[in-house]
Amino acid sequence: MPQPLMELFPTSLRHVLEQLPAFVMESLEEIRIRENRPLEISYGSRFSFVREDGTLTDEFRAAYVPSKEQCRALLERVTNHSVYAVEEELRRGYVTVPGGHRIGLAGRTVLDKGLVSHLRDIAGFNVRMARARIGFGAQVLPGLLDFKSRTIRHTLIVSPPQQGKTTLIRDIARCISSGEWCHPGALDWGSRKVGIVDERSEIAASERGVPTFDLGPRCDVLDACPKAEGIMMMLRSLSPEVIVVDEIGRPEDAEALNEAIHAGVRVLATAHASDLSDVFARPVLAKLAADGVFGNYVLLSRVGGKVEHRIVSAEEAVQETSRRYSRTIGATPRDAPWGTALPVASVVTPSPALVTVKARPMPAIRSPDLTAARGNDDD
Protein backbone atom coordinates (compact mmCIF):
# COMPACT_ATOMS: atom_id res chain seq x y z
CA MET A 1 0.00 0.00 0.00
CA PRO A 2 1.39 3.45 -0.86
CA GLN A 3 2.75 5.21 2.23
CA PRO A 4 0.79 8.48 1.69
CA LEU A 5 -2.43 6.46 1.71
CA MET A 6 -1.36 4.49 4.77
CA GLU A 7 -0.74 7.75 6.63
CA LEU A 8 -4.42 8.68 6.31
CA PHE A 9 -5.39 5.96 8.77
CA PRO A 10 -5.34 6.60 12.54
CA THR A 11 -2.27 5.10 14.22
CA SER A 12 -3.98 2.09 15.81
CA LEU A 13 -5.80 1.17 12.60
CA ARG A 14 -2.65 1.70 10.56
CA HIS A 15 -0.80 -0.70 12.84
CA VAL A 16 -3.33 -3.43 12.04
CA LEU A 17 -3.11 -2.87 8.29
CA GLU A 18 0.68 -2.75 8.28
CA GLN A 19 0.72 -6.34 9.55
CA LEU A 20 -1.21 -7.74 6.57
CA PRO A 21 0.67 -10.51 4.73
CA ALA A 22 2.87 -9.35 1.83
CA PHE A 23 0.88 -11.27 -0.79
CA VAL A 24 -2.28 -9.51 0.38
CA MET A 25 -0.64 -6.08 0.26
CA GLU A 26 0.42 -6.70 -3.35
CA SER A 27 -3.12 -7.44 -4.53
CA LEU A 28 -5.10 -5.28 -2.08
CA GLU A 29 -8.11 -3.65 -3.76
CA GLU A 30 -10.45 -2.44 -1.02
CA ILE A 31 -10.38 -1.73 2.69
CA ARG A 32 -13.82 -1.48 4.28
CA ILE A 33 -13.94 0.34 7.60
CA ARG A 34 -17.31 0.38 9.37
CA GLU A 35 -17.87 1.92 12.77
CA ASN A 36 -18.18 -0.76 15.48
CA ARG A 37 -18.23 -3.51 12.83
CA PRO A 38 -15.56 -5.94 11.57
CA LEU A 39 -12.65 -4.70 9.46
CA GLU A 40 -12.88 -6.21 5.96
CA ILE A 41 -10.54 -6.25 2.96
CA SER A 42 -10.79 -7.33 -0.67
CA TYR A 43 -7.79 -8.66 -2.57
CA GLY A 44 -7.75 -10.38 -5.94
CA SER A 45 -11.10 -12.15 -6.20
CA ARG A 46 -11.36 -12.80 -2.48
CA PHE A 47 -12.45 -11.01 0.67
CA SER A 48 -11.51 -11.59 4.28
CA PHE A 49 -11.93 -10.07 7.70
CA VAL A 50 -8.80 -8.91 9.52
CA ARG A 51 -7.76 -9.75 13.07
CA GLU A 52 -5.95 -7.27 15.32
CA ASP A 53 -2.60 -8.91 14.51
CA GLY A 54 -3.15 -8.49 10.75
CA THR A 55 -3.96 -12.14 10.06
CA LEU A 56 -6.99 -13.03 7.94
CA THR A 57 -10.13 -14.82 9.02
CA ASP A 58 -13.48 -15.87 7.56
CA GLU A 59 -15.07 -15.51 10.99
CA PHE A 60 -16.30 -11.92 11.39
CA ARG A 61 -16.66 -12.29 15.16
CA ALA A 62 -12.87 -12.69 15.44
CA ALA A 63 -12.09 -9.58 13.41
CA TYR A 64 -10.76 -6.22 14.56
CA VAL A 65 -13.53 -3.67 15.11
CA PRO A 66 -12.78 0.01 14.34
CA SER A 67 -14.22 2.40 16.90
CA LYS A 68 -16.26 5.57 16.51
CA GLU A 69 -13.21 7.64 17.43
CA GLN A 70 -11.10 5.96 14.73
CA CYS A 71 -13.75 6.58 12.08
CA ARG A 72 -14.03 10.22 13.13
CA ALA A 73 -10.25 10.62 12.94
CA LEU A 74 -10.19 8.96 9.50
CA LEU A 75 -12.88 11.35 8.23
CA GLU A 76 -10.88 14.32 9.50
CA ARG A 77 -7.79 13.17 7.61
CA VAL A 78 -9.65 12.25 4.43
CA THR A 79 -11.28 15.70 4.29
CA ASN A 80 -8.09 17.48 5.40
CA HIS A 81 -9.87 18.63 8.56
CA SER A 82 -12.50 20.56 6.58
CA VAL A 83 -15.70 18.76 5.70
CA TYR A 84 -17.00 21.92 4.02
CA ALA A 85 -14.05 21.98 1.62
CA VAL A 86 -15.21 18.68 0.10
CA GLU A 87 -18.94 19.38 0.21
CA GLU A 88 -19.43 18.50 -3.47
CA GLU A 89 -17.62 15.18 -3.02
CA LEU A 90 -19.72 14.40 0.04
CA ARG A 91 -22.84 15.01 -2.02
CA ARG A 92 -21.62 12.39 -4.50
CA GLY A 93 -20.70 9.95 -1.74
CA TYR A 94 -16.94 9.75 -2.15
CA VAL A 95 -13.67 11.63 -1.73
CA THR A 96 -10.65 11.13 -3.99
CA VAL A 97 -7.33 11.45 -2.18
CA PRO A 98 -3.80 11.92 -3.61
CA GLY A 99 -2.76 8.95 -5.71
CA GLY A 100 -6.21 8.59 -7.28
CA HIS A 101 -7.55 6.41 -4.46
CA ARG A 102 -11.30 6.82 -4.07
CA ILE A 103 -12.88 6.58 -0.62
CA GLY A 104 -16.57 5.79 -0.72
CA LEU A 105 -18.62 7.05 2.22
CA ALA A 106 -21.72 5.70 3.93
CA GLY A 107 -23.87 7.53 6.44
CA ARG A 108 -27.02 9.59 6.71
CA THR A 109 -28.03 11.65 3.69
CA VAL A 110 -29.30 15.21 4.02
CA LEU A 111 -31.91 16.18 1.44
CA ASP A 112 -32.60 19.56 -0.12
CA LYS A 113 -35.81 19.74 -2.17
CA GLY A 114 -35.77 15.99 -2.55
CA LEU A 115 -32.15 15.79 -3.73
CA VAL A 116 -29.11 14.66 -1.77
CA SER A 117 -27.34 17.75 -0.43
CA HIS A 118 -24.54 16.03 1.48
CA LEU A 119 -23.75 13.23 3.92
CA ARG A 120 -23.59 13.45 7.68
CA ASP A 121 -23.00 10.96 10.50
CA ILE A 122 -20.50 9.17 8.27
CA ALA A 123 -19.79 5.73 9.71
CA GLY A 124 -18.58 3.67 6.77
CA PHE A 125 -15.57 3.98 4.44
CA ASN A 126 -14.60 1.95 1.38
CA VAL A 127 -10.98 2.70 0.45
CA ARG A 128 -10.42 1.64 -3.18
CA MET A 129 -6.82 1.28 -4.35
CA ALA A 130 -5.77 2.91 -7.63
CA ARG A 131 -2.90 1.14 -9.37
CA ALA A 132 -1.27 1.62 -12.74
CA ARG A 133 -0.69 -1.58 -14.69
CA ILE A 134 1.74 -0.75 -17.46
CA GLY A 135 1.16 -3.17 -20.34
CA PHE A 136 -2.46 -3.94 -19.47
CA GLY A 137 -3.67 -2.00 -22.51
CA ALA A 138 -1.37 -3.94 -24.87
CA GLN A 139 -3.66 -6.95 -24.52
CA VAL A 140 -6.70 -5.04 -25.79
CA LEU A 141 -5.53 -2.13 -27.95
CA PRO A 142 -4.65 -4.16 -31.12
CA GLY A 143 -8.29 -5.21 -31.42
CA LEU A 144 -9.51 -1.60 -31.34
CA LEU A 145 -7.43 -0.15 -34.18
CA ASP A 146 -8.86 1.58 -37.24
CA PHE A 147 -6.15 0.93 -39.83
CA LYS A 148 -7.67 3.22 -42.44
CA SER A 149 -7.52 6.27 -40.18
CA ARG A 150 -4.49 5.11 -38.17
CA THR A 151 -6.16 5.54 -34.78
CA ILE A 152 -8.68 3.69 -32.59
CA ARG A 153 -12.37 3.05 -33.23
CA HIS A 154 -14.98 4.55 -30.92
CA THR A 155 -14.97 2.07 -28.03
CA LEU A 156 -17.05 1.40 -24.91
CA ILE A 157 -15.49 -0.75 -22.17
CA VAL A 158 -18.11 -2.57 -20.11
CA SER A 159 -18.03 -4.50 -16.83
CA PRO A 160 -19.48 -4.54 -13.32
CA PRO A 161 -17.62 -2.46 -10.73
CA GLN A 162 -14.08 -3.44 -9.67
CA GLN A 163 -13.15 -5.37 -12.82
CA GLY A 164 -10.41 -3.07 -14.11
CA LYS A 165 -12.15 -0.60 -16.46
CA THR A 166 -10.34 2.48 -15.17
CA THR A 167 -6.99 0.69 -15.08
CA LEU A 168 -7.49 -0.40 -18.68
CA ILE A 169 -8.44 2.98 -20.14
CA ARG A 170 -5.56 4.60 -18.25
CA ASP A 171 -3.02 2.32 -19.93
CA ILE A 172 -4.67 2.52 -23.36
CA ALA A 173 -4.52 6.32 -23.08
CA ARG A 174 -0.81 6.04 -22.24
CA CYS A 175 -0.21 3.79 -25.28
CA ILE A 176 -2.00 6.14 -27.68
CA SER A 177 -0.27 9.21 -26.26
CA SER A 178 3.11 7.46 -26.60
CA GLY A 179 2.49 5.93 -30.03
CA GLU A 180 2.69 2.38 -28.67
CA TRP A 181 0.02 0.75 -30.84
CA CYS A 182 1.06 -2.82 -29.94
CA HIS A 183 0.45 -4.14 -33.47
CA PRO A 184 2.97 -4.96 -36.23
CA GLY A 185 0.78 -3.19 -38.78
CA ALA A 186 1.02 0.08 -36.87
CA LEU A 187 4.77 0.37 -36.36
CA ASP A 188 5.02 3.57 -38.42
CA TRP A 189 2.04 5.31 -36.84
CA GLY A 190 2.64 8.44 -34.84
CA SER A 191 1.20 9.14 -31.43
CA ARG A 192 -2.10 10.95 -30.95
CA LYS A 193 -3.20 13.86 -28.76
CA VAL A 194 -5.26 12.43 -25.90
CA GLY A 195 -7.69 14.39 -23.75
CA ILE A 196 -8.88 12.87 -20.48
CA VAL A 197 -11.89 14.24 -18.63
CA ASP A 198 -11.19 12.88 -15.15
CA GLU A 199 -14.34 13.66 -13.19
CA ARG A 200 -13.42 11.50 -10.19
CA SER A 201 -9.65 12.17 -10.30
CA GLU A 202 -9.04 8.43 -10.66
CA ILE A 203 -7.65 8.06 -14.17
CA ALA A 204 -4.75 10.51 -13.86
CA ALA A 205 -4.64 11.02 -10.06
CA SER A 206 -3.66 14.64 -10.66
CA GLU A 207 -2.15 16.74 -7.88
CA ARG A 208 -2.35 20.49 -8.47
CA GLY A 209 -3.27 19.76 -12.08
CA VAL A 210 -0.31 17.45 -12.77
CA PRO A 211 -1.03 13.72 -13.40
CA THR A 212 0.80 11.35 -11.06
CA PHE A 213 0.18 8.33 -13.30
CA ASP A 214 2.12 7.89 -16.54
CA LEU A 215 -0.25 8.93 -19.35
CA GLY A 216 2.35 9.45 -22.06
CA PRO A 217 3.82 12.68 -23.47
CA ARG A 218 0.79 13.92 -25.45
CA CYS A 219 -2.00 13.83 -22.88
CA ASP A 220 -4.03 16.68 -21.38
CA VAL A 221 -6.24 16.21 -18.32
CA LEU A 222 -9.23 18.14 -17.02
CA ASP A 223 -9.27 17.09 -13.38
CA ALA A 224 -12.42 16.94 -11.23
CA CYS A 225 -14.49 18.20 -14.18
CA PRO A 226 -17.99 16.91 -15.02
CA LYS A 227 -17.74 14.71 -18.11
CA ALA A 228 -20.20 16.49 -20.39
CA GLU A 229 -18.83 19.96 -19.70
CA GLY A 230 -15.26 18.70 -19.85
CA ILE A 231 -15.74 17.12 -23.28
CA MET A 232 -17.01 20.41 -24.67
CA MET A 233 -14.11 22.32 -23.07
CA MET A 234 -11.69 19.86 -24.66
CA LEU A 235 -13.23 20.34 -28.09
CA ARG A 236 -13.15 24.13 -27.84
CA SER A 237 -9.63 24.62 -26.60
CA LEU A 238 -7.39 21.53 -26.50
CA SER A 239 -7.92 19.95 -29.97
CA PRO A 240 -7.75 16.31 -28.84
CA GLU A 241 -7.68 13.45 -31.34
CA VAL A 242 -8.90 10.93 -28.77
CA ILE A 243 -11.11 11.73 -25.76
CA VAL A 244 -11.16 9.40 -22.75
CA VAL A 245 -13.94 9.41 -20.13
CA ASP A 246 -14.91 7.03 -17.34
CA GLU A 247 -18.36 5.77 -16.31
CA ILE A 248 -20.77 7.41 -18.73
CA GLY A 249 -24.51 7.04 -18.33
CA ARG A 250 -26.25 10.42 -18.12
CA PRO A 251 -28.12 12.07 -21.02
CA GLU A 252 -25.71 15.01 -21.03
CA ASP A 253 -22.80 12.57 -21.40
CA ALA A 254 -24.39 11.15 -24.55
CA GLU A 255 -24.96 14.59 -26.05
CA ALA A 256 -21.33 15.59 -25.45
CA LEU A 257 -20.02 12.31 -26.91
CA ASN A 258 -22.06 12.87 -30.05
CA GLU A 259 -20.58 16.35 -30.35
CA ALA A 260 -17.08 14.91 -30.06
CA ILE A 261 -17.72 12.26 -32.69
CA HIS A 262 -19.14 14.77 -35.16
CA ALA A 263 -16.04 16.88 -34.55
CA GLY A 264 -13.84 14.06 -35.85
CA VAL A 265 -12.57 12.96 -32.43
CA ARG A 266 -12.37 9.32 -31.42
CA VAL A 267 -13.93 8.32 -28.09
CA LEU A 268 -12.84 5.78 -25.47
CA ALA A 269 -15.32 5.42 -22.61
CA THR A 270 -16.41 3.01 -19.88
CA ALA A 271 -19.77 2.10 -18.38
CA HIS A 272 -21.06 -0.11 -15.61
CA ALA A 273 -22.95 -3.13 -16.96
CA SER A 274 -22.80 -6.88 -16.45
CA ASP A 275 -23.04 -7.69 -20.14
CA LEU A 276 -24.30 -6.35 -23.48
CA SER A 277 -27.94 -6.91 -22.60
CA ASP A 278 -27.48 -4.55 -19.65
CA VAL A 279 -25.90 -1.98 -21.98
CA PHE A 280 -28.93 -2.05 -24.26
CA ALA A 281 -31.30 -1.98 -21.28
CA ARG A 282 -29.89 1.34 -20.05
CA PRO A 283 -31.69 4.12 -21.94
CA VAL A 284 -28.69 6.41 -22.50
CA LEU A 285 -26.34 3.62 -23.57
CA ALA A 286 -29.04 2.05 -25.75
CA LYS A 287 -29.54 5.38 -27.53
CA LEU A 288 -25.80 5.69 -28.17
CA ALA A 289 -25.77 2.14 -29.52
CA ALA A 290 -28.79 2.79 -31.73
CA ASP A 291 -27.07 5.89 -33.12
CA GLY A 292 -24.07 3.76 -34.08
CA VAL A 293 -21.72 5.69 -31.83
CA PHE A 294 -19.53 2.79 -30.72
CA GLY A 295 -17.78 0.55 -33.19
CA ASN A 296 -16.46 -1.80 -30.52
CA TYR A 297 -17.47 -3.03 -27.09
CA VAL A 298 -14.88 -4.50 -24.73
CA LEU A 299 -16.36 -6.83 -22.10
CA LEU A 300 -14.24 -7.37 -18.99
CA SER A 301 -14.71 -10.23 -16.54
CA ARG A 302 -12.76 -12.01 -13.83
CA VAL A 303 -12.04 -15.71 -13.88
CA GLY A 304 -10.43 -16.44 -10.54
CA GLY A 305 -7.89 -13.68 -10.00
CA LYS A 306 -7.36 -13.01 -13.71
CA VAL A 307 -9.09 -10.30 -15.75
CA GLU A 308 -10.18 -11.50 -19.19
CA HIS A 309 -11.59 -9.46 -22.06
CA ARG A 310 -13.70 -10.00 -25.15
CA ILE A 311 -14.02 -7.49 -28.01
CA VAL A 312 -17.38 -7.36 -29.78
CA SER A 313 -18.23 -5.24 -32.83
CA ALA A 314 -21.42 -3.17 -32.87
CA GLU A 315 -23.07 -5.57 -35.31
CA GLU A 316 -22.11 -8.63 -33.24
CA ALA A 317 -23.41 -6.92 -30.11
CA VAL A 318 -26.87 -6.46 -31.62
CA GLN A 319 -26.93 -10.07 -32.83
CA GLU A 320 -26.00 -11.35 -29.38
CA THR A 321 -28.66 -9.35 -27.56
CA SER A 322 -31.32 -10.24 -30.14
CA ARG A 323 -31.14 -13.97 -29.42
CA ARG A 324 -33.68 -15.53 -27.08
CA TYR A 325 -31.97 -16.60 -23.89
CA SER A 326 -32.35 -17.02 -20.14
CA ARG A 327 -30.03 -15.38 -17.66
CA THR A 328 -29.71 -14.52 -14.00
CA ILE A 329 -30.72 -11.05 -12.92
CA GLY A 330 -27.54 -9.47 -11.58
CA ALA A 331 -23.89 -10.42 -11.89
CA THR A 332 -22.37 -13.64 -10.56
CA PRO A 333 -20.33 -12.96 -7.40
CA ARG A 334 -16.63 -12.57 -8.08
CA ASP A 335 -15.70 -15.36 -5.65
CA ALA A 336 -18.09 -17.89 -7.20
CA PRO A 337 -16.39 -20.85 -8.93
CA TRP A 338 -15.98 -20.36 -12.66
CA GLY A 339 -19.08 -21.44 -14.57
CA THR A 340 -21.32 -21.22 -11.49
CA ALA A 341 -24.63 -19.42 -11.99
CA LEU A 342 -27.00 -17.99 -9.43
CA PRO A 343 -30.53 -19.42 -9.30
CA VAL A 344 -32.44 -18.07 -12.28
CA ALA A 345 -34.74 -15.30 -11.09
CA SER A 346 -36.57 -14.76 -14.37
CA VAL A 347 -36.39 -15.25 -18.08
CA VAL A 348 -35.33 -12.26 -20.14
CA THR A 349 -36.36 -12.27 -23.78
CA PRO A 350 -35.05 -9.23 -25.63
CA SER A 351 -36.89 -8.18 -28.70
CA PRO A 352 -34.82 -8.47 -31.91
CA ALA A 353 -36.00 -5.01 -32.85
CA LEU A 354 -35.06 -3.44 -29.53
CA VAL A 355 -31.90 -1.82 -30.89
CA THR A 356 -31.08 -1.15 -34.52
CA VAL A 357 -27.59 0.12 -35.17
CA LYS A 358 -27.39 2.81 -37.81
CA ALA A 359 -24.57 2.68 -40.29
CA ARG A 360 -22.36 5.65 -39.52
CA PRO A 361 -19.32 6.43 -41.69
CA MET A 362 -16.26 7.23 -39.62
CA PRO A 363 -15.32 10.93 -39.81
CA ALA A 364 -12.16 11.72 -41.69
CA ILE A 365 -9.16 12.07 -39.44
CA ARG A 366 -5.97 13.72 -40.56
CA SER A 367 -3.26 11.07 -40.82
CA PRO A 368 0.43 11.54 -41.50
CA ASP A 369 1.86 10.81 -44.89
CA LEU A 370 3.40 7.35 -44.92
CA THR A 371 6.75 8.87 -45.78
CA ALA A 372 6.59 11.53 -43.09
CA ALA A 373 8.80 11.23 -40.08
CA ARG A 374 7.28 9.89 -36.90
CA GLY A 375 6.10 12.67 -34.64
CA ASN A 376 5.23 15.14 -37.43
CA ASP A 377 1.68 13.88 -37.88
CA ASP A 378 0.12 16.99 -36.27
CA ASP A 379 1.94 19.58 -38.38
UniProtKB/TrEMBL annotation:
Keywords: ATP-binding, Nucleotide-binding. SUPFAM superfamilies: P-loop containing nucleoside triphosphate hydrolases. The keyword Ribonucleoprotein does not apply. Gene3D superfamilies: P-loop containing nucleotide triphosphate hydrolases. Transmembrane segments: none annotated. Pfam families: Spore_III_AA (PF19568). Residues 151-300 form the AAA+ ATPase domain. InterPro entries: AAA+_ATPase (IPR003593), P-loop_NTPase (IPR027417), Spore_III_AA (IPR014217), Spore_III_AA_AAA+_ATPase (IPR045735). NCBIfam families: spore_III_AA. This is Stage III sporulation protein AA.
